Amino acid sequence: MRLLLIHSDYIEYEAKKKTKIAEECTVLSDREEEALTVFCAVESIDEEDLEGVVLQAIAEVKKTAGQVNVTKIVVYPYAHLSSDLSSPETAVTVLKALKGGLESEGFAVKRAPFG
To answer: Which among 31, 75, 91, 110 would be 20 to 30 A from 9, CA to CA?
Structure first.
């Protein structure tokens, strides 16, 4: 998994149209203030050890959040970080697991819709 972590004063997103790989979602737009934005690309090699990839990502996000002193996280799917992506279904599974794992660590987490 490739991650790009950015400490954001704020981040906004809005899903404008559905693509053929988009997941069903109820929150189409949102905004978060003072957050660590985690841009994520799940890669095909990650499919060999999804649990390990998620645990490693949680550790990295937790470390960085501690360094910048934030408790709010926005997980943002960002396929542009890799040219060797996993299947969309795998990516959604990993992103949901990342969100859940970070929540269990005490973070307030929002996840932008996939696709």
So the answer is: 91
Cα distance between residue 73 and residue 38, in whole Å: 7
Q: How far apart are CA 100 and CA 33, in angstroms?
A: 20
Rounded to whole angstroms, the maximal C-alpha distance in the chain is 38
CATH architecture entry for 2-111? 3-Layer(bba) Sandwich (3.50)
Tokens 């040219």, residue located: 83
Q: What is the pLDDT of residues 29-82, one digit of tens each?
A: 889 999 999 999 999 999 999 999 999 999 999 999 999 999 999 999 999 999
By DSSP bridging, strand 108-111 and strand 72-77 are parallel
The CA distance from 27 to 111, in Å, is: 9
Q: C-alpha distances in angstroms, 64 versus 4, 57, 73? A: 11, 11, 11
Q: What is the pTM of this model?
A: 0.89
Could you tell me which residues are beta bridge partners of residue 3? 40
* Dihedral (Cα; 80, 24, 52, 76), 10-degree rounding: 40
